[in-house]
Design goal:
With 266 residues, this protein is of the alpha+beta class. The chain has eight helices and eight strands, in the order ββαββααββαβαβααα. The protein has helices at residues 62-74, 99-109, 112-123, 157-174, 195-200, 214-219, 225-242, 254-264, and strands at residues 38-46, 49-56, 79-90, 93-95, 130-139, 142-150, 179-182, 203-210. The longest helix has 18 residues, at 157-174.
Length: 266
Amino acid sequence: MVQKQVPVTESLSYKNYDYGKVYGACCENVIGVVGIPVGVAGPLLMNSKEYYVPMATTEGCLVASTNRGFNATLSGGGIFSRVSSDAMTRGPVVRFPSAMRSVEAKEWLEMPEHFHKIKKDFDSTSRFGRLMSLQATPAGKFLFIRFVAKTGDAMGMNMVSKACELALQSLKKDFGDMEVLSVSGNYCTDKKPSGINWVQGRGKSVIAEAIIPGKTVKTVLKTTVPAIVELNIAKNLVGSAMAGSVGGFNAHASNMVTAIFIATGQ
C-alpha cells in the first residue's frame, strides 16, 4: 500500500516575512519560516544595568526558572561579570613528506619574525580579526596549527577561517612541499568537547559573580545555603567527575543559552 506523502509546506508558514533578510545572507533553499514562542526573563541586573532577556523555547518552565534565578540575584546587588579572555581558534591540519619536515615547519613558525610575517597576512583579511598567537604541534607527517585570534564583538568563526586560509597560503611560499588537508583539523576544537578547550579556553571566556543572601535562598529558591552547597559537591563536582565530564561541571546551562541564541540570532 502506497501512502500519500504530505508536502512539508502544507504545515509550514511562509507568508508575511521579509525574505530579503535571508537570501544570500544566512540560509539556503528557503521554503518558509517556523514560529517559536518567545518569552522574556528579567530584569537581569548585570554590572549595575538592567536587561530583559528574550528566550525562544517550547520547553515548559525554562523561562520561569531563569527568571527566578535573575530575581534571586537582585537582592545581592545583581551580577558582575568581565570578559577574561578573547581567543577564538581555528586549527588546520597540513601534511609534509616527512616527520622531520613537519618539525622544521613547527620551529619556523615559532620564530618571532616568521610569526609576525604570518600575522600580517592573517590580519589583512579583516577589520577586527587579529592574530594573537599560534600553537604548532606535529604528529608524524601531520602538523596541526592552532591559530588564536581576537574577533571583536563577533563569535568570529568564519572570520578566523578566512584568515587561516590566507595564512596557510603564505606559509606554503616557504614550505612548497606542504599539503593543506583541512582548514579545520579538529585541533580548534569547534563544537566538540576537548581537553585543550577546557584548559586553554576558546572564544570569549567570562567570569561572573553574584552574592545571594541566605534569606533570599529560603524565600525565592525555597531551600537553604547548606543544602545547595551539599548538592553542588555531590552533583556538580563528584557526579560530573564520575561521568568523566569535560568542562561540564554545572547544573544546567545549555538550554538557556540555546533559547537566547534562537531569540537573538547567532
